[in-house]
Design goal:
Layout: E1 2-7, E2 12-19, E3 23-31, H1 43-64, E4 74-80, H2 84-101, E5 105-109, H3 110-121, E6 129-134, E7 139-146, E8 149-155, H4 161-171, H5 178-185, H6 211-222, H7 226-259, E9 263-267, H8 274-286, E10 290-292, H9 296-299, H10 304-315
Parallel strand pairs: 1-4, 4-5, 6-9, 9-10
Antiparallel strand pairs: 1-2, 2-3, 6-7, 7-8
Helix pairs in contact: 1-2, 3-10, 4-5, 4-6, 4-7, 6-7, 7-8
Bound molecules: 5'-O-[(R)-(carboxyoxy)(hydroxy)phosphoryl]adenosine (KG4) and zinc ion (ZN).
């Protein structure tokens, strides 16, 4: 089965053709640059960029896969969560394509898409496992009982992990998006330079909170002189990263132990973080757990993960109607 995936939930316009739910024939991602100078995504600009780029991106995905649109057997599209204006562009396009080609439309939850990035890169991964879906828009701790069956153990109560990276990078004048820059500069920084707060929340909670940490960094920076900030910018960024990593790793491992599974997977843009991967591997080893994460291109937003999830749902007989709407806060639902 050949599925065309379309992803426009935030600031990436992406299209991909996936065969049999596992072979990526093409994976085209256009990352919008227009937001860089604002230090964050401007929703209205994101929608306009999606309108401008969706046709060339889809054409590129088809041509890279060397197939014509008539060969596509289903169109999978992200319907939420995400920015409503952005979601609507991909969704409307997918509906038009489904109607004109007379092929099924499959609405996909973006978080489920991120989880499928792990299935794409690790066909050997067997359920159950814990998946930490951490990106610019979400921080979810999910128990994947089996493919398509999810239990949300925890989520962020305020900022997402990637959002905290982006905001802290802005405070430190490191540029946007902040995650990759902090990841890079932290190779030279001291993680123990300053002990920023770790929000573990109530005993036993798998929820996250990164907003207090972000504020703590901003306050700390106001107390530094220009010269001190210049000298310790990298150390502050590295100490911030360490605080995020500590909480993610500890909660992820605890969730594995509590749910009695030996596997933990990362997904989402923050899953690219080197320190997080390194610390998770080290802690997992101590607890005899296996760690999985997707290749970098499948961590950040892409449409291959949406096509793979679409293939799975369609093979279970799930098809969406043309009345499918964009849902900015769509919950993660298991298959029927
Ligand atoms: O999954 P994604 O492309 O979009 C959302 O679904 O939100 O994730 C983007 C987020 C951004 O906040 C970015 O700063 C973060 O992922 N990110 C990273 C790294 N690469 C991207 N965070 C930490 N370390 C990285 N290497
Ligand atoms: Zn995402």
């Amino acid at each position: 089965m050949l599925i065309l995936g379309i992803e426009t939930s935030c600031d990436e316009t992406a299209a991909s053709v996936v065969k049999e739910g596992k072979d990526i024939l093409s994976n085209v991602v256009y990352s919008q640059m227009v937001h860089n100078k604002y230090g964050g995504v401007v929703p209205e600009l994101a929608s306009r960029e999606h309108i401008r780029t969706i046709v060339p991106v889809i054409k590129a995905a088809l041509s890279e896969a060397k197939i014509s649109s008539e060969k596509i057997e289903g169109v999978a599209v992200t319907y939420g969560p995400g920015l409503v204006g952005s979601l609507l562009i991909g969704l409307s396009f997918a509906k038009a394509l489904s109607y004109s080609l007379d092929i099924p439309l499959i609405g996909i939850n973006h978080i489920e898409g991120h989880i499928f990035a792990d299935f794409l890169d690790h066909p050997e991964i067997s359920s159950p496992f814990i998946c930490l879906v951490i990106s610019g828009g979400h921080s979810n701790l999910v128990y994947v009982a089996q493919k398509g069956s999810y239990e949300l153990l925890g989520q962020t109560r305020d900022d997402a992990a990637g959002e905290a990276f982006d905001k802290v990078a802005k405070v430190l004048n490191l540029g946007y998006p902040g995650g990759p820059v902090i990841d890079k500069v932290s190779q030279e920084g001291n993680p123990d330079f300053f002990k920023f707060p770790r929000a573990y929340l109530e005993e036993g909670s798998f929820d996250f909170s990164f907003s207090g940490l972000k504020t703590a960094v901003a306050l700390y920076v106001t107390k530094l002189s220009e010269e001190e900030l210049g000298r310790h910018r990298t150390d502050v960024a590295t100490s911030f990263q360490e605080a995020v990593v500590d909480v993610l790793v500890e909660k992820g491992i605890k969730a594995c132990l509590e749910k009695n599974t030996r596997k933990i997977a990362l997904a989402g843009g923050v899953a690219r973080n080197k320190r997080l991967r390194e610390r998770l591997r080290a802690e997992a080893e101590k607890n005899h757990l296996h760690v999985f994460y997707p290749s970098p291109i499948l961590c950040t937003d892409n449409a291959a993960m949406i096509a793979a999830a679409g293939d799975f749902r369609l093979s279970r007989g799930e098809v969406s109607g043309l009345d499918l709407n964009a849902i900015p806060y769509a919950p993660l639902n298991s298959v029927q």
